[in-house]
Design a protein that fits this description.
The protein is of the alpha+beta class. The protein contains seven helices and 14 strands. It starts with a helix and ends with a strand.
Length: 267
């Protein structure tokens, strides 16, 4: 796995695109990809980066055929890649990112480890707040051509994450949020133009269920830490991922979910 990690890390550091790892090794599968990802996480930590949460990717099953994947994946997010925007506005640099795209998402802050089981309200008791988010994803693989193993190994395609105004989760709104998370609508705009729309159910039927998916996946990945209090988790794009460029301004609206929208300026 070190050879694959070397190739990926060198390309990402140099912002140089390469062919998918699976094109060189037909046996390169998702299990191997997570071993590479673990090695790359270690290299980031050796550089002084600090893990502050996770991103879940490809939870939106409506776009799986377009990107040639068949499952979600995850990676850590870092103190150097996350920007907090409590007032609802952020500026994000695209420097060093390859063919970047933007994704409107729902992010959670954990107050405690997630409980077992499938009760959404019980899971939300472990959540301190939810927030609108924009993830900027990018690809070291040319023209967004890869398999599930390739994008998993490549830091889950993570580039940047902006986390908008938090909405505390408590007894007064927990049941309503559990009900609304699958059915709220999101609108994505570039400038004044509506680019795309989506619904909460696009994300594994609910962003809360995406959290449960990650919990369960980590339970069979003993080499990675389980979810812990204080982590931010962003749960995947509610729409397609859209190409972005410096100078653009993107905004989101979360409709009936009750979150304030988020605006990002790209430089």
């Amino acid at each position: 796995m070190s050879e694959a990690a070397d190739r990926l890390f060198a390309a990402i550091e140099a912002a140089t695109q390469i062919a998918p790892l699976s094109s060189h090794d037909a046996a390169f599968d998702v299990a191997a990809a997570y071993r590479v990802l673990g090695e790359l996480h270690g290299r980031r930590e050796a550089q002084g980066w600090t893990r502050i949460g996770r991103k879940i990717g490809f939870t939106n099953r409506t776009i799986w055929p377009r990107y040639g994947v068949d499952r979600p994946m995850w990676s850590h997010v870092w103190d150097r890649t996350v920007t907090f925007a409590p007032a609802g506005e952020a500026t994000l640099s695209l420097a060093g990112l390859m063919q970047p795209r933007i994704e409107p998402e729902v992010a959670f802050m954990l107050r405690a480890p997630l409980p077992d089981g499938s009760d959404v309200e019980a899971v939300l008791r472990a959540i301190a707040w939810i927030a609108p988010a924009f993830e900027i994803v990018h690809t070291v693989f040319r023209d967004w051509k890869f398999g599930a193993a390739d994008c998993t190994a490549a830091f889950g395609l993570h580039g940047r994450l902006a986390v908008g105004p938090p909405l505390p989760v408590d007894d007064s709104n927990r049941a309503a949020l559990a009900a609304e998370l699958p059915r709220f609508a999101v609108a994505l705009r570039r400038g004044d133009a509506l680019v795309d729309t989506g619904v909460g159910a696009n994300v594994l039927d609910s962003p809360a269920l995406a959290l449960m998916h990650l919990r369960d996946l980590l339970s069979v990945q003993p080499s990675f830490p389980a979810l812990a209090s204080g982590e931010i988790v962003t749960t995947g794009t509610l729409t397609d991922a859209w190409p972005v460029a410096p100078g653009e301004i993107w905004t989101s609206d979360y409709g009936s979910l009750g979150l304030r929208g988020l605006t990002v300026r790209l430089v």
